[in-house]
Amino acid sequence: MALPKDELVEYIYKMVEAAAGKKQLKAKDIEKAVLKEHPDQNKNDIKFAIKELIDSGRCVYTYFGGSFIELPRVEGAAKH
């Protein structure tokens, strides 16, 4: 069953959060993982959910020989 938009955004956020420090996820990786769990999910909804996470600052694009979606990095001084 397809997820409502808000739930899809949270689902993707949790996926990125779980991968933090272990694996870098590309947008295509996220799309494939969502479609594996929710085969009837609209691909455009997935793209818009990723865009919403990026636009809100909850996730960022990083570039290391490819585009990856990650949580924003907290610099050492910013943690205090």
Short description:
The model has no long low-confidence stretch (mean pLDDT 92). This protein has helices at residues 5-19, 27-37, 43-56, and strands at 60-63, 67-70. It has three helices and two strands; from the N terminus they run αααββ.
Query: Can you say what the CATH homologous superfamily is?
Result: Winged helix-like DNA-binding domain superfamily/Winged helix DNA-binding domain
Specify the structural class.
Answer: mainly alpha
- The main sheet orders its strands as 1-2
One letter per element, helices H and strands E, the order comes to HHHEE
The overall average pLDDT, rounded, is: 92
Indicate the low-confidence ranges by residue numbers.
none
| Integer-rounded radius of gyration | 13 Å
Beta-strand content estimate? 5-15%
* Quaternary organisation of the protein chains: single chain
> Tally the helices: what do you get?
3
- Total strands: the figure is 2
What is the fold named in CATH at topology level?
Arc Repressor Mutant, subunit A
Instruction: Bin the helical content.
Output: 40-55%
User: Largest beta sheet, briefly?
Assistant: 2 strands, antiparallel
How many structural domains can be distinguished in the coordinates? 1
Assign the CATH class.
Answer: Mainly Alpha
